[in-house]
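User: what does the whole thing look like in 3D?
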Amino acid sequence: MTALIILLCVLLISIVLVQIGKVTELTAQIKGEREVLRDNSKWNGWLSLVFMVVFLVSVCISAWEYKNEMMGYGPHKAASAHGGALDDMFHITLVLTGIVFVICHIALFWFAYKYRWQEGRKAQFIAHDNRLELIWTAVPAVVMTILVVRGLNAWNTVMADINPNEDYIEIEATGQQFNWIIRYPGPDGKLGTRNFKLTTANNQLGMDFTDPKTWDDVIPGQELYLPVGKKVRVRITAKDVLHNFYLPHFRVKMDAVPGMPTYFIFTPVKTTAEYRNELRKYDDFNKPNDAADPTGPKRWEKFEYELACAELCGKGHYSMKRILKIVSQEEFDAWYKTQESFYLTQIRDKDDDPNKGKVLDMEVRQRAQEFSDNMKKAVESADPADKTLTLNHINFESGSATLTANSRYELDNLVTGLNAYSGITIEVAGHTDNTGDPSANLALSGARAAAVVKYLTDRGISAGRLRPKGYGDTRPLVANDTEENRAKNRRTEFTILGTSNPL
Ligand SMILES: [Cu+2]
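Assistant: Here's the predicted 3D structure for the full assembly of 503 residues, as structure tokens:
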């Protein structure tokens, strides 16, 4: 339907133009060709002048009107350390080309007016002029050289790679239709290896989980945080088509190319809060953010730095927008602490995990720390309820009292604890769920407690400090109604019975 209307409009306009042409021809016949030519030339000349004035005035008005929205002017000064240098380059280019722009337009329309057709006036032809040629070749060449050399210098400074001794944070941005996957390194400060062949639905980046550096890597949610004043190196890649990593307020813009990693380094120098305070000084930003809600938050209050894709990469291109918050180092650390490892939360012990069934060094360290904290609390607490601890990572082969190989880590933690608090005696308690015969359960739990005690005595803990006891299914933690709950009830615990030498 729309196409039909457009077609009809085009047809109508053509008819109108043809008719106007016919009318002009008719008037020319009546008035005489020369007179019409003179009239037309005069009108064309004057209209050129009017156009020139309206055009140049409009350029000035629109620049004035939007001066506070443009990057590099008013409140939108660069928020990165290198941004000022790039803004200066744009300013110089704008001034130089602006002068040429205004002079060219005035000359163009003024000449169209001044040298319009007039009775008896003849055109003058200049065949060749070496001096003129030289001037208009040399002047732009010199100006261009200055601009390009300055530009190259600025570019080389901006793109200088990190010196490995510097304090910096490296993050990774992977563009895909239609979102950015941003990866932060974990506490080790290093991003883990990737291999596109390992890409699956759960592992969209193809992270290689046999590389310990990937274990603590973090893929944060929608909002990204970076600390102010710290150098950031962004490793930029793409999975499907060209994208472009664009942080307009920081003057950062770099193509994300499939198969060819690129990077950008920048140092944010203004926090989001500081930028908002800058905006606050301008009337334009004290208007309500939502015109329909005049009492609502002001524009400056709603300001956020944004990450966008600056490559028209497909239909959902616009949805690649992300919010970036620049905060103090303390706020950043607090946010970073809340971020969990992608591997440990999404992959660990699932089918995609190449380390399934193994205990990782970092888990051993983490569990040892947890165990020692809990043990300290249990020893120091006066509350009897705090005196019993569950040994979470001790497991037995199904239906038997044989400890699994991975149980040794937790058992070693217990050995360390008993050596640290050499005065305490403990009861080691085995518990089962309610499946099967109660007397068999009782026997099994007793045998399991004894297996734990044997492990401990084999490692030098005096048997006099250890009391194995099987409780079978008599002391469930929760009702035995689901498989998950039954798993909770099958457990090994220890209770601190007393301290022969008070701490
Ligand atoms: Cu894109």
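In plain terms: The chain has a mean pLDDT of 87. The longest helix spans residues 33-65.
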